[in-house]
């Protein structure tokens, strides 16, 4: 079940990142983050009320609060990097985030078996190959690289925090709600501050209402991915859950290939294949 939930995480995050990157090419990244996180917070609030999640309030929610502060900053950096593109490069580089939850898992005493250890190495190598060749080909701006590295650090920290934020399903809903409310408040405050400084937080013609469905999907997919990852980390080793969840760049790269016609080189296809082999090793180990 750990593998199933972690792979669902990679699918959801991959699609959310692709959608967020596309939206950021039409409006400021801060607007995309703030609006999508607010929509997710409203949906989670209704879910918490429906499931009685308020009864699970406790000290662990501080982990969710911290994740809510770090998450939107990481997303902001990541969406800006995706907008600079190419997505097939930026997204795989963000998998460096996997190092943080793996390190936490090892520190807590987790020791993957031989097949799982091999799967971790193969999967990470595959994801890196899926984006690495473009570093010498299509130009990758230094700003995009720096933004991606900052995003990876933030994502890895959120991975570790959200895995510790709850021990029950109802508690998970509440933790994700606290995380998203924190993110929405931080994003709204930043938008307001940007407006006060004279920086337009919205496109000149205002928020394109036709983008609301896409913003909703991005926000809900992102929060659902957090939920499936937390479940995967609770059911099995964090090291395995983190690596399988980190396969989301393959989804983003394939979506960019299918929709934007970004070229997928032979070595990138081989990297995607290695990532799948690593997935099988992790799931069977």
Can you offer a commentary on this structure?
The chain is mainly α and 285 residues long. The protein has a domain at 2-86 and 97-107 and 140-196 and 210-250. 76% of the residues lie in helices and 0% in strands. The chain is built from twelve helices and no strands. The chain has helices at 2-24, 29-51, 61-84, 87-93, 99-107, 114-131, 142-163, 169-196, 212-235, 238-245, 248-260, 266-284. Helix 3 (61-84) crosses helix 8. The longest helix has 28 residues, at 169-196. The two termini are 13 Å apart. The model has no long low-confidence stretch (mean pLDDT 77). This is Membrane protein. It comes from Streptomyces nodosus.
The stretches of 5 or more residues where confidence is low (pLDDT under 50) are none
Q: Could you give the count of β-strands?
A: 0
Radius of gyration: 18 Å
By DSSP (H or I, 4+ residues per run), the number of helices equals 12
Largest sheet: none
Estimated helix fraction: over 70%
For the record, give the distance between the C-alpha atoms at the N and C termini, rounded to a whole number. 13 Å
Residue-averaged pLDDT: 77
Keywords:
mainly alpha; Membrane protein; single chain; 285 residues; 12 helices; 0% strand; globular
């Amino acid at each position: 079940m750990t593998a199933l939930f972690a792979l669902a995480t990679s699918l959801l995050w991959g699609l959310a990142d692709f959608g967020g990157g596309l939206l950021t090419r039409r409006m400021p990244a801060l607007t995309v983050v703030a609006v999508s996180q607010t929509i997710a917070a409203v949906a989670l609030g209704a879910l918490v009320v429906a499931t009685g999640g308020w009864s699970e309030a406790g000290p662990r929610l501080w982990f969710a609060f911290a994740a809510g502060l770090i998450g939107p900053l990481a997303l902001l950096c990541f969406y800006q990097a995706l907008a600079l593109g190419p997505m097939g490069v930026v997204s795989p580089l963000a998998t460096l985030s996997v190092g943080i939850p793996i390190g936490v898992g090892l520190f807590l005493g987790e020791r993957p078996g031989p097949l799982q250890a091999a799967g971790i190495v193969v999967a990470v190598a595959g994801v890196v190959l899926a984006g690495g060749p473009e570093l010498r080909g299509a130009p990758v701006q230094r700003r995009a690289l720096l933004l991606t590295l900052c995003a990876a650090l933030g994502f890895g920290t959120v991975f570790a925090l959200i895995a510790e934020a709850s021990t029950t399903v109802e508690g998970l809903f509440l933790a994700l709600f606290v995380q998203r409310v924190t993110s929405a408040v931080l994003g709204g405050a930043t938008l307001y501050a940007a407006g006060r400084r004279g920086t337009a937080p919205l496109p000149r013609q205002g928020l394109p209402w036709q983008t609301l469905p896409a913003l909703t999907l991005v926000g809900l997919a992102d929060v659902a991915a957090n939920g499936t990852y937390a479940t995967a980390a609770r059911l099995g080793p964090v090291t395995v859950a983190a690596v399988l969840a980190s396969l989301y760049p393959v989804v983003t790269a394939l979506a960019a290939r299918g929709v934007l016609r970004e070229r997928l080189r032979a070595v990138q296809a081989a990297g995607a294949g290695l990532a799948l082999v690593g997935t099988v090793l992790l799931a069977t180990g």
